[in-house]
């Protein structure tokens, strides 16, 4: 069974086997949300926030598998 997460929470960091996950820039998300809540106008109707892929053992692959494909 493969498990994949979508949040780099403290629990994900101590999971065994190490989780494969998409890490989201939480501080950037909080900043954008608070700006919007306090009246800032977004630059567009869609905001793209880059995320990063972290390969762990929970998906059944290795870092070598991920970099070769």
Account of the 3D structure:
This protein has a 3-stranded mixed beta sheet, with no helix packed on it. It has one domain. The protein has 3 helices and 3 strands. Helix 1 links the parallel strand 1 and strand 2. The two termini are about 20 Å apart. Helices cover about 35% and strands about 15% of the residues. The radius of gyration is 16 Å and the shape is elongated. The chain has about 70 residues and is of the alpha+beta class.
Short summary:
This protein has 69 residues and is α+β, with helices and mostly antiparallel strands.
Q: Which secondary structure elements does this structure contain, and how are they paired or packed?
A:
Blueprint: E1 4-5, H1 10-14, E2 20-23, H2 26-37, E3 52-54, H3 63-68
Parallel strand pairs: 1-2
Antiparallel strand pairs: 2-3
